[in-house]
Amino acid sequence: MKTKITDPKKEFLLGAGLDVLHQESKEWQENIAFWQDETKFFNTILTKKERQESEYTSLLKNLERVHHHLFNFMSKDIIEHEKFLSRLVKGEKGLSDENYRGQHKELKEKMEVFNQDFKTFKKMVFAYVKKL
User: Fold this and answer.
1) How far is residue 117's CA from residue 128's CA, in Å, rounded to a whole number?
2) pTM of the model
């Protein structure tokens, strides 16, 4: 019999007040802004010295571009989520707390996956730079 292991923090947050979920959304935006700065720094490192274009360098540059686009999409999703919260708090008809929480859970999962992927990307950049 398989037992599903749940993340108590995740379960707690989804049951928390809307103000707590709003704060978490703001933290996501701050994380994305920080990752964008890191990506710019990585791009500077990768292009600073003139060197022959290797497949690995090309791969890293492409990953940087992909991350840039993902940052924009994630940021837009979070902004839309915050707008949903604003409309919910104002009591707009047809909106439900349950839908907001479901959307929040999905965004949280995307952020967790993206965070892991970005850590992997950073490790690749660091490994490459160490070899220079």
Assistant:
1) 17
2) 0.66
